[in-house]
Amino acid sequence: xxxxxxxxxxxxxxxxxxxxxxxxxxxxxxxxxxxxxxxxxxxxxxxxxxxxxxxxxxxxxxxxxxxxxxxxxxxxxxxxxxxxxxxxxxxxxxxxxxxxxxxxxxxxxxxxxxxxxxxxxxxxxxxxxxxxxxxxxxxxxxxxxxxxxxxxxxxxxxxxxxxxxxxxxxxxxxxxx
Length: 177
Ligand code: IMP
Ligand code: MG
Fold this sequence. Notes:
Layout: E1 6-9, H1 11-27, E2 34-39, H2 43-55, E3 61-68, E4 81-84, E5 94-102, H3 106-117, E6 122-130, E7 143-147, E8 153-154, E9 170-172
Parallel strand pairs: 2-3, 2-5, 5-6, 6-7
Antiparallel strand pairs: 1-9, 3-4, 8-9
Helix pairs in contact: 1-2
Bound molecules: inosinic acid (IMP) and magnesium ion.
Inosinic acid binds at residues 41, 69-70, 76, 99-107, 152-153, 158.
């Protein structure tokens, strides 16, 4: 695939927002923090964010969870499963779930409930992008990178059918679909 991708947020804009997000997260005074990146889409964002958290004075444990609801489709199937679980104990700890996009909210609502049920002290949610008017379940993100227009976006870790994750910016493909 090598279609033209239109830039929505360039690398400098993303880096600046990540710095500010890290300050917001520090201001929430997290204790015994474990950052849990929701794979795969959040891996680039999470990698940048944890280094900004370091600059902002935090030393979180970093974990990963792989959830799937989308498969190769661009429309949510509405069914979330754990493909790979975290390896750490979250009981009594503050958790920061990091994901790429909050859309229907099903993925993050599922993850939030799962970690709360395991006894996390507080489960906070940080998303790179929030798509408005798309929520199917009640969930709000505590930290949001950007309010995103209603495009199918790619790059900066995000894909369509496994392509475009390597792009250093967030973009969309004009006249996709
Ligand atoms: P939801 O909030 O449960 O609907 O799921 C959001 C997830 O769907 C994100 O974490 C992405 O993995 C995927 N997703 C939703 N919109 C897009 C998009 O525009 N580009 C790439 N992935 C998307
Ligand atoms: Mg995802």
